[in-house]
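Task 17 of the worksheet. Students: predict the tertiary structure of the chain below and write it out as structure tokens. Keep your answer in the requested format; marks are given for formatting as well as content.
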Amino acid sequence: MQYNDKTYKEKYKKDIFYMKKAIKLAKKGIYTTHPNPNVGCIIVNNKKIVGQGWHKKAGDHHAEIYAIQMAGKLTQNSTAYISLEPCNHVGKTPPCCEAIIQSGIKRVVISMLDPNPKVSGKGIQYLKKSGIKITLGIMSKESKEINQGFLKRISTGIPWVTIKMAISVDGKIAMKNGDSKWITSKKSIQNVHKLRATSSAILSTSNTILQDNPKLTVRYKHVNNKQNILPYTQPIRIIIDSKNQIQPNHNIIKENIGIIWLIRLCKDKIQWPNHVKQIIIPAYKNYINFKKLLIFLGKKKINKLWIECGAHLFSNILSMQIIDEIILYIAPKMLGNNAYSFFFNKKKVNINQKPNLIFKNIKMIGQDIRLIIQTKY
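Model answer:
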């Protein structure tokens, strides 16, 4: 039975109501939890919320523990609403299932199973053996949405790949004379920083660094912007630099507020600062093998990869069918023929061979339009 089904909604009306709150809590961790998933928990006793919590960062308490601590003795004979199956194994923190059992909670409503096949369902089995009633699958679609990167990395071994492009109405990214570094508005730039902050890593190329000399950091003033947003974790900055063109004097290197990985075919002999590390990835036709790079990033627990690059890399990786999401900021400008297009394809293809794209979200950001487009290969 589907979530949109009227009968389903009526039967699980109360569960949906509280699970929405648990998922809303889970979203508070989107800036800080990676590589862990975003999880929220609500504890209800006698129709009142007596405990709530969310996972804040790796190594910290899980959402269930915060909620149980807040509820105290009111956990007896209560119901817990959790956006992800509770863990039943010891990691950096003790297993949550044991804490739930000890607390006296009598029913647990779970939105979705743990995606890890080694542990999926085991938490539920453990709770059931202790006599706790389980309801599974409430708002699972919404829970999956807030953990796309974690789910993809666990299931495929590679991160969720988002690529951002800022273009004019006529599909251009920059004037050929370099006279258009910023196409979109300040509000769009602020929005980019917020989305950067939800990512585990930001990737670009040496060409972008050489042309624009960016820092590629998340700036606090943009992320907060008079809103009550929690502190964020600075994403790892990754630069594809197959020809070893990046130097210590570039802004991205001088901005020592996070880790930088230079992706190369061979190391140089420069004495780099401690926050910079050279990573060797095998070549494919004299270039970095991008698919092997993604596998490497998956092993490093990169859930969400945010890419900012030019038309060349964008076109190449789109043809590889490894992009999950494209975010286009479209400015109300026309740059004309003396500007670079954001996409090119040298191969002749049939229209049926082109990527199948789906408009996920369309929103005005200041004077610009933001399109969130997901791929369907």
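Marker's comment: The chain has a mean pLDDT of 89. The two ends are 26 Å apart (CA to CA).
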